[in-house]
Write the C-alpha cells for this entry.
Amino acid sequence: MIDPSVRVLPNLEGAANALAATVATSIHEAAERRGRVTLVFSGGSTPRPLHRALASDYEDLPWTATHVFLGDERHVPRDSPHSNYAMLSETLLDHVRIAPENVHPWATDLPRPEDTADAMELLLKEFFEGRLPRFDVIILGIGDDGHTASLFPNSPALNVPDRLAVAARAPDEPRERMTLTLPVINNARAVHFLVAGAAKRHALQCAFGSPKGMQSCPASLVNPTDGSLTWWLDEEAAAILPDVAGQ
C-alpha cells in the first residue's frame, strides 16, 4: 500500500494542465526506456481539458510509440454521444499523429457487454503476452457516488480477482458498461485521478476517509501495488479535505 500524492490547483484548467505536463514526461520516459508507451484514458467531461492540453501543448510526444486504451466504456456505438471513445477521439485522437492500430477501443459492436469485455480480455492478454497488464499511465475520474471507471458501489466487479475486463451495470443510463478490473488498475506504474467541482466533495471524503476495502466507495480501492497514485484536484473539490487544501 502506498500513500497517495495530492496536488491542488486553483481550477480544473490548472489541474488538467499540470497533469498533462506529468503525463507528457511519463510518455517520454516510457518511450526511452521500453520503446513503447501504454496509456489508459477515462471518460466523462472532466478530462476534456487534459486531452486538449496533450494535443496542443506537447507536439513532440512520441505518438508513434504510444498505445491508447480506455478504462471503461458504455455499450453503445462508437459514434454515440455517450461513447467514451467518441469523446476521446474528438478531444485528443483526432488531433495527434497516432496510428489507428495503436488505438484499442472496446468492441462495442458485439451483441452483449459480456462479449465486449471478453474481447478486451483477449486483446489485453495478447498485447501483454499473457502477463497482468502493466500500463505506464492510467487516468481516472470519480463519480459523485465514489465510483471510478465503471466500478460502482457494491458491484460484483469489485470482487473479481482473475479477470482483466468485465461487464458492469451502472445505476443510470446507459446502464450496460464494460470496465477494466481493480487488479489491472492497481498494477499500473502510475495512476492519476483528475477531480473538479464542489459536487465531488462527498466522493473525495469517501475516497480519502474510508478504510481500504470499502465496497461502498470503489475509488478507495485504487492503490497501486508497485506504482504511484496522484490526485489532481481543483480548490472547489479539495475544500472538503482541509489537510491538503492549498498544496
Notes: The first strand starts at residue 5 and ends at 9. The radius of gyration is 17 Å. The chain has a mean pLDDT of 94. Residues 12-34 form the longest helix (23 residues).
